[in-house]
Amino acid sequence: MIEQIRRSALVRHMPKWLRLPMGRGYRSIFQAPVAVASLAQTDAPPLQPPTANAAEVEAVVARLYHLTLERTPSADEVQAWVNEVLGNRISVAGMVEAIAKSSEADLVRQRANLLPEVPNGKFVQFAFERLQGRSPMVSEVVQWDRLLSRHTLGRSQLVLQLFAQLATKELTDAGQAPVHDPNLAPWLGTDRFISIKEWQGKADSIGSDYPPVEPRRYTSLNVPNKPEILVTAIASLYRGGDYIEQFLDNITSQTIFATHCELIIIDADSPEGEAAVIARYMERFPNIVYHRASTRIGIYEAWNLGVEMSRGQYLTNTNLDDLRRSDSFERQVEILEAFRFVDVVYQDFYYSFDGKAPFAKTAAVGFKSEVPVVTPYNLMQSNSPHNAPMWRRSLHEEIGMFDEGFRSAGDYDFWLRCIQGGKTFFKLNDPHVVYFVNPEGLSTQPNTRGIDEANRSTKRHGRKLLSPWLLSSDEEFMRELSRLAGVEVAVGQTERAAFDWRYVAAQRALRLAASSGRSDDRSIEDSRWHL
Fold first, then answer.
1. Per-domain residue ranges for the chain?
2. Could you please report the per-residue DSSP string of 22-87?
């Protein structure tokens, strides 16, 4: 080992070290023994820097200690090494070897590779659950697995990074700052934010010159002709005085409201006297049901009351400060009526920072979400159905009610339970609803805890949604893939350097299974090795 390090290209270029910042190259030398051996390919004799001085040796010692021992050397330790090197009793290469092979360095390496018998994926999952309070996303599992497999970083550094984030959040002023800026809205489906200034600028430029929005008509899909309650719209009401009349006008003007819908309003003991306005609309629309709770209840307790009182086959939540195009209910019902395999229908939506702007103007401003088609993995990253979805009432018999322990993420928790139960989500690309970024809303006010609640929900469900083969070791994954394919599946080391190599391996297994006559074997399709 001493001769290998002495002959390494790194040692032969030692003077350059003193001018380079600490970086990944240093880590790879001391965290990956294979990397050390790979450098020992020359026959150059060991070199002592001919112009070494005390300052240069001190700099090398400090960097070696930081990288190999993960600490700062004491003044006595630095002086001792300087004396040894300048006294020609040890070469710089010998000093590197002595520090790298010390018992303290062995302990650091052991700490960096915590629980080597546990696959990287499972270790990453455990670390995120304990130190972030959430499940890791698929991309995070894959990225950390690559870093750990290549010895670019050690497991102790993963733990340290996650712990530092937790400490920053809980112990510093930065961690106590508002978690949400009501002047910004995440632009779902993109990596951007929409600002109120940007939105208002576009709205001002349009003014009152915008085209009307007409209901869409699709001849291929139709709701039943006979009058019957198909849809129950549920609204939770608390301090909705500013929006109640606009809301009732919008809902009662839905194309199928009079013949196929009912609206259940759960008043969560609001102090603003909205009941008088509601009573006027109830005189005209007997399919409006009003229930006032005797105490201040949460939104999901209100929704659960609405579910219990509902008569419709399909349910939808209706926020008082949002708007729907006049055919919104009809578009959603058409899908659920036509496609019996669909359990939840959702859609893109327009963003608004003006709660009084009509639907047509907001559509003309044109800030539209790009929410993805729901899969188990991207649902863990984004609550795509969060705005005005419609779902089958029967889901509550199978999946359960909304968890009333949440203040703002109970619907997200419900969707995660649905996807876990194998339910089907259908996305409409037609944005027939408007989402108002209300600074007073539960999910948009500056101190919302929605992020914390969403994290808690992913932690609750992540272990059932993440494939065990995503978390397995490479060897376990390949053995299972070969077993399912009925033929040996091989993926070379060069191919495994790719980010998506497991996906490539699965595709290869499917082709091999087909060519070997196992294409009708349902064991592959039914297995949980989705990536």
1. 2-112, 120-174, 229-464, 468-526
2. --HHHHHHHH-HHHHHHH----PPP---TT--HHHHHHHHHHHIIIIISSPPPHHHHHHHHHHHHT
Neighbours of 29 (CB within 10 A): 20
In CATH, what number does 229-464 get?
Answer: 3.90.550.10
Give the tens place of pLDDT for each residue, 180-232.
Answer: 677 899 999 998 999 999 999 999 999 999 999 988 776 556 677 778 899 99
- The Cα 350–Cα 199 span in angstroms is 11
What's the chain's average pLDDT?
85
Six-digit token string for 377: 């993995």
pLDDT given for residue 480 in this prediction: 94
Residue 193 bridge partners (DSSP): 186
Mark out the alpha helices in 253-382 (DSSP H runs). Answer: 257-260, 275-284, 299-309, 328-338, 359-365, 376-381
pLDDT digits (tens, 9 = 90+) for 13-22: 333 333 333 3
Phi, psi of 187 (to 5 degrees): -85, 95
**Is-contact 229 287, C-beta < 8 A?**
yes
